[in-house]
Design a protein that fits this description.
Layout: E1 2-8, E2 18-19, E3 29-30, E4 49-55, E5 63-66, E6 75-78, E7 82-83, E8 87-92, H1 95-100
Antiparallel strand pairs: 1-4, 2-7, 3-6, 4-8, 5-6
């Protein structure tokens, strides 16, 4: 399954093997599926932000799909750092990019 996280450019250089330390807020890193991206598109209008696509089968950290807000939307949460070997694509991001790239991974399988 393919999911993505968003992060500032400087976060991409945190470690040569793992990234995400600055994204760990509490116990996990917030991630998103392409289907849920339009629900949070307003959070992407930040300068120098990147959309980092991950292959969940390659992640070393556990990942859970959780509905922390009780709104029946299950977002992927990564419980640990992201190993760079799980990264399959990185691209600059803004709200317009999210909308245009909804079919970026058309062959992906989602829950």
């Amino acid at each position: 399954m393919k999911i993505f996280v968003t992060m500032p450019k400087e976060a991409l250089k945190e470690d040569e093997n793992y990234i995400g330390q600055s994204l760990l807020k509490g116990k996990f890193i917030h991630a998103c599926t392409k289907e849920l991206a339009l629900r949070i598109v307003d959070k992407f209008n930040q300068p120098d932000f990147y959309q980092v696509w991950l292959e969940t089968d390659l992640l070393e950290a556990p990942i859970l799909f959780e509905d922390k807000a009780n709104n029946k939307y299950y977002y992927p949460h990564i419980y640990g750092l992201i190993n760079v070997s799980a990264i399959i694509d990185i691209q600059p991001i803004d709200a317009k990019t999210v909308i245009e790239k909804q079919n970026h991974f058309q062959d992906a399988t989602y829950f």
